[in-house]
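RESIDUES AND SHAPES:
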Amino acid sequence: MTTKLSCAKCGTTNDLKAGYCYLCHDPLAGIPKLGTQALTGSTGEEGGGAPGKPVLRFATMLPFTEAKRYNILMSLILFVALFGLLVLVGAIIGALMGNINHGLAFAVALYAILAGTAYYSGSKIILALHNAGKVDRQKHQQFINVVEEMSIASGLPVPALYVMPTAGMNAFAAGRHPKEAVVAVTQGLLDNLNREELQGVIAHEMAHIKSRDTLYNICAAVLVGAITILSEMVLRAGMHRGRRSSGSRGGGLPAVILIVIGFLLTVLAPMAANILQMSISRQREYHADAAAAEFTRNPMGLASALSKITERGASVPGENRGTQHLFIVNPLSGLGKDTSKLMSTHPETRFRIRRLRAMAGFAEA
């Protein structure tokens, strides 16, 4: 059974389900040309279209530079808000201790300790957690070649390469600095993507490295962890203050107020921190998609890869909530169930695909 199809215009070999050429974007056989019928949105068999398959039409091209600027700005705003929340919780702890400066100093010191641990050991921990082994140069030669190509396109050193032994399709990048970066993909990804699609995925991960998202994500995760620890300390300090002042005349009401504030912070601060962290992750995914389109000059390759990953599953060994934001598609989202809710680490995949198609000058009719 034929699984590949050559483009009549440029001769590029494409996946049979692609619908359009990855190189020149010309519709392949079985998909209606972009004319009157395509603009009407018809998908019937009379015009040669595949039943139930979206018809593409020309659209105003979305500049990837504009998408990147917007997402970088939003990420910085959210990160500043997250750090502001850490300072707020530290100040409240200081107030309960009788000295705000002490509370602020403690909050910053806790963040520095956690960040230092993640900074120097984060990549090794993540690779071990997901059972990633070093790449086999004989078995994974195409993977190595594609990474080297995208390294040249992005202007980055070639990262250390790892493969996770699973049929699921996913990938992530880690590392505190481009010179120490790692890229890991699943065996399922290598088995199921063609070269153009693999280029899109690797370009996405190289974009994370170039934008220092790998370090950015560590800092965001550490901030969330620090806020959670500090929030619990606020509650404990409030309860201690309440017991200490319960024997004092007129000290009952202030103690109750402090306990209530501590309880609210314990519940609301970590929740707010997680929402901000997920918002940062979603913006960085859009940014990496746009940068990947710049590196490959082929947004359709990544769009097709995301579609395949969503359809066939993105599970990985050792998947957990602590690292879900690192992957190109959330491994915990479930088959085809990506969402863009407040607590989601990734934008809904169909929205990412829609943006990539717009970058190529196409949109669904």
Observations:
- The chain has two domains: 1-58, 64-358.
